[in-house]
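Researcher: Predict the fold of Bcl-2 Bcl-2 homology region 1-3 domain-containing protein.
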Amino acid sequence: MSLQPPPDRHRKFSFPATLHRNLLGLPERQTPRAAKRRFSTVTDVSRKFSHTIGWRSSSVPTADIVAQGKTMCGQYIRCRLKRSNMFNRKCGLQRLRSAISLPGGYVVREVFPELLSIGQELERMHPELYSGVGRQASCTPVLATEKAVTGVLTGVARELGRSNLTWAKVVSLYAVAGGLAADCVRQGHPEFLQTLVESMGEALDYHVADWIAHNGGWTGLLNYCKPGNNDISLAGFVGLLAAAMATVFFLFILLRWFGRFTFF
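Model: C-alpha cells for Bcl-2 Bcl-2 homology region 1-3 domain-containing protein follow.
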C-alpha cells in the first residue's frame, strides 16, 4: 500500500471569498441558477448545524420569515402604487394579487401596518431616495428586463447585510421595492411586479432572514416600534386605590369643616 499523500485537488464548489463592493450596483457576472441552488443547499445545512450546536436561540424558521416577507412585499407594493395613483387592472397587477395570498397568517396582519407606517415615514423624510430607484442604482435608468429589477433589489439587500442590520434598514428595503414597483409601472412594465416580489424573497433568504430570525421573527418589529407593556401591576393598582381613598377622605374632612355636610 502506498503511503504517498494524495495529490492536491481543487475543491469542486470552491469560489472566491472576496466580493466587489459596488454600492447598489448590478452584479458584473450572473451566477447560474443551478449554482445558486447548490450554495443555497450549503446555506441550509449551515443553518441546521448552527441551530444544533446552539449558535442561535431563535425558533422561527427562516422559510416562514421569507414567505411572510414576500406577502408583505406584495401588500407594500399595492399600497405604494395606490398612493401614486398607478394601481390599475393590468395583467401584471392581477398577477400581483396572487402574490398577496402567499402564506403569512396572523403575523402578517399584525406586523404589516407597522411596517407600512415606518416605510411611509421613510419615504416622507427622504423622497429623493425612494423615487427613481432604478436611475440611482444602475447606469441606465430604464429597467428593461426582469434581471435588472432583480439585480437592483438584491444589490441593495447585499449592501444592507454587510453592515449591522437594524429594523429600519429592513423596512427601507421594502421602501426600495415600492420605488422599483413605481418605476416599473411608469416605464410600462407592470409584468415585472411579480418578479419583484420573488426577488424580495430571494433577497430576504440570502441576506436578511437569519438576522430577522435571531431577533424574534417579524413580530420583533412590533417590539421595536411599540413601547413596553404599560399594564398596571397589582401593587400599582393598590397604590392608586389607596391614593384615591385618601383624596376622598381629605375632601370629606374639608367639606365637613366648612359645614357642607349634615350628619344625623
